[in-house]
Amino acid sequence: MLLPVAAPWLKLAEAIDFARAHAGATVLPIHDGILSPGGRQLVDNVLTAVLGADRYRRPAEGETLTC
Question: Would you say which domain of life the source belongs to (predicted)?
Fold first, then answer.
């Protein structure tokens, strides 16, 4: 699942609720271009703590993903 994690219209709590409603999906963050490196780390820490490292991960820059 590609999950928006930062936007003027977004609450991270709502993104978490959406991800939780889709149990079993691997969650990858999108819409995070407005975040500083520290902001990205904060989002990653929160989502990893809430969803678990088995469900949430941030792909490396330039990493190619296939479905």
Answer: Bacteria
- pLDDT category of residue 66 using cuts at 50, 70 and 90: confident
Please provide the average confidence, as pLDDT, over all residues in the chain.
95
- Asked if residue 30 belongs to a domain, the reply is yes
Q: Which domain holds residue 20?
A: 2-51
